[in-house]
Each structure stands twice: as C-alpha cells, then as structure tokens.
Amino acid sequence: xxxxxxxxxxxxxxxxxxxxxxxxxxxxxxxxxxxxxxxxxxxxxxxxxxxxxxxxxxxxxxxxxxxxxxxxxxxxxxxxxxxxxxxxxxxxxxxxxxxxxxxxxxxxxxxxxxxxxxxxxxxxxxxxxxxxxxxxxxxxxxxxxxxxxxxxxxxxxxxxxxxxxxxxxxxxxxxxxxxxxxxxxxxxxxxxxx
Length: 194
Known about the structure:
- 58% of the residues lie in helices and 15% in strands.
- It has helices at 17-23, 41-50, 68-75, 88-98, 112-160, 164-178, 182-193, and strands spanning 8-13, 32-38, 55-59, 81-87, 104-108.
- A five-stranded parallel β-sheet has the order 2-1-3-4-5, sandwiched between helices.
- The longest helix has 49 residues, at 112-160.
C-alpha cells in the first residue's frame, strides 16, 4: 500500500453471512479500517449516529426494510459514499431512480472483481468529496472573517467616529503593521470596542 493512500471506514449493512464472508478479503490490507458489519437498517442508523463512515454498503433487501431509504438519506451527507446492491432484475429501475442522488447501485450477484472496482470507484468519489469539503470550509472561513471585519469596522465607526472607509483602512494597516491577519485585528478591535 502506498504511503499516499488514505484509509476508509466502511459500514457494511448486510444480513447475508456468506456474502459478508466473501467480501472480507477485499477489506484486508489496511486500506479499509474499521469495517463494521450490521445486519439491519435500524442498527445501521444507530451506528451512523455514533460515528461517521466514508462508505456505506447496503446489501438489499434487509430483514427490517429494503435499504433504499437509508441510502437516499445518506446521499444528503457529503462525506459518505453509499452503495446499494440489488438483485439483477431490479438494477435498472433503481439505478435510474437513485443515480440523480449520487448513489451507486450494483447488480447481484456481483463478482469479487466487480466489487473491487466498486470499492476503487468509491475511493475516487470520496477523494473528490474531500476536495469539495475543503473548499467549503475555506469559503466558510473567509465569510466568517468578512463578518468579523465588518463588525469590527462598525465598532470603530461607533466608538471612534471613523468613516467606513477610514475603518477599513485602519484594519488593513493594523494587519500589515502588526503582521496579523485581518481576522486577528478584527478580534482585537471587538475585544477593545465591541
């Protein structure tokens, strides 16, 4: 395994012991850890409350429900890549209903090689999602900094009688002179005048 490879957590939702046993060798080698197996959708939902997983693989149907609603719910979580495995005769119908949600669907019976390809694809999708998450966090941080700077400028306007333009220049100059970020300058202003 390359040192650059990530490790992915897996929740396998399957009541078929033979299927579970046949999949376990694919998870060996340290690339997929931990691998948690549950035998019902209800147990899967409880596990998902306790912790997050990179991949959720649902081997439908499950004893308590089919599993479709679980993967649809998971599709709203940008950090999870869901895979629903269904009988071959149901594949086409479910694929066309679920792919708009970003849900992978596989037809059973599934070969070991096809499952390995699904896992590789899921790794690729997860890395793409990681990039989106990182950009989202960066954008949220930037928006929070803008809000803080604006609050600091209004504090300067009220407390020191500055114009908005003067307050803006003051924040920028303080950041440059003190080698601080605008966020740090804004926080200092808010502590002083806020």
